[in-house]
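Here is an idea for our session: we take a single protein and study its fold together. To get us started, please write out a protein record for me. Once you have written the record down, we can walk along the chain together.
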Amino acid sequence: MTAPLDLQLAALRPALLRFATLQLRNESMAEDVVQDALMAVLEKPERFAGQSSLRTYVTGIMKYKIIDVLRASKRTRQIETADD
């Protein structure tokens, strides 16, 4: 018997947070990315087809969220630089 999805995700959270923190080098942004990825899974659990492990699935979602954050921060830096 497998644990409920929310318990499985809670168990993955520390590892996901470590990964996101290493990628973003900002703990606050990493927290946001992990939270967004976990919420995406909880909001539409039917999208997880079970073709990979849950950890692999959530990490994949989180990678795209990290890319979005990095793109947004790059745009912000470019705008701030242009104003100077």
In short: The domain at 5-83 is CATH 1.10.1740 (Rna Polymerase Sigma Factor; Chain: A).
